[in-house]
Amino acid sequence: MARLIVGCGYLGSRVARRWLDAGDDVFVVTRSPNRAAALAAQGYRPLLADVTAPATLGGWPAAETVLYAVGYDRAAAKTIEQVFLEGLGNVLAVLPATTRRLIYISSTGVYGDSEGEWVDEATPCQPTRPGGRACLAAEQILLGHPLAERSVVLRLAGIYGPGRIPRQSALLAAEAIAAPRHGYLNLIHVDDAVEAVVAAAERPIDLPRIYLVADGNPGRREDYYAELARQVGAPPPRFVEPPAVSPAAERAAADKRISNTRMLDELGIRLRYPSYREGLAAIVTNDTS
To answer: Has residue 28 been placed in a domain?
Structure first.
């Protein structure tokens, strides 16, 4: 089976490996010739292209499944709108009409502040941050395209995993965390996020469909950092208020708890890491072994 991955980063690369190990023919899009060579050496079929440059797109093979998991790289000198909105639009314009299923990786940032209440797929979207607004606009572009009838939108909570633990280095250095100690963190381990993508590609579900991808056990920020400090042997966390105009302040202003009920019920996923406690323990154990 042919799979196409646009955005082979932290999540996309793991999905690619999962599909390759299953015997699928995996095409991956990259902007870098060096990375293309490395991917080819691993058994992938690299395609050199930049989603923000339409002239580099096209001529792609027909694929049963397309995963669009493009993240925002500030070093690329592009705006978030160019990457999320124009990029998705450019890719949709060249995808073969025979694409069986398109999976778009979005964010729970499409929701605004819920004052700590639970949020699900029926909750109105009122994003307050640029990333959330761009993700929601990209979702709307997809929903206006003919491939919408074969699409799944996965709104991911904060993704973590090996090599990607928020604020670990700051805690080990005994630095104060520039964030309010209160408010909820909604997280998903990258291995469980991969399971959601794989299930979204294969499960017989009604399309189009939106799923919130989170572990369903949001924790208070102060509790998360206390547990992380305990597991890595760092001093207890200290907090300072972030600047009023900063990403940390914006994230803290959107307090909510993400429900994963639809994901569990319809995609049939059994989470390997049902909370950050188990997820952090597995990462820390492997890092120190």
So the answer is: yes
**What tokens appear for 141 in the block?**
């572009």
How many domains would you assign to the chain? 1
Query: How wide is the angle at C-alpha 213 spanned by C-alphas 141 and 229, nearest 5°?
Result: 130
Distance CA 51, CA 89 (A): 9
CATH number at residue 77: 3.40.50.720
In a domain, 99, yes or no: yes
**Whole-Å CA distances, 18 to 12, 24, 177, 241:** 10, 9, 35, 41
Confidence of residue 289 (pLDDT cuts 50, 70, 90): very low
Mention every residue, 6+ apart, whose C-beta is less than 8 A from residue 136. Answer: 106, 110, 125, 127
Is residue 245 over pLDDT 70? Answer: no
Q: What is the pTM of this model?
A: 0.94
Of the candidates 104, 181, 154, the one whose C-alpha atom is nearest the C-alpha of residue 258 is 154
pLDDT digits (tens, 9 = 90+) for 59-79: 899 999 999 999 887 777 889
211 closest CA partner among 144, 266, 146: 266
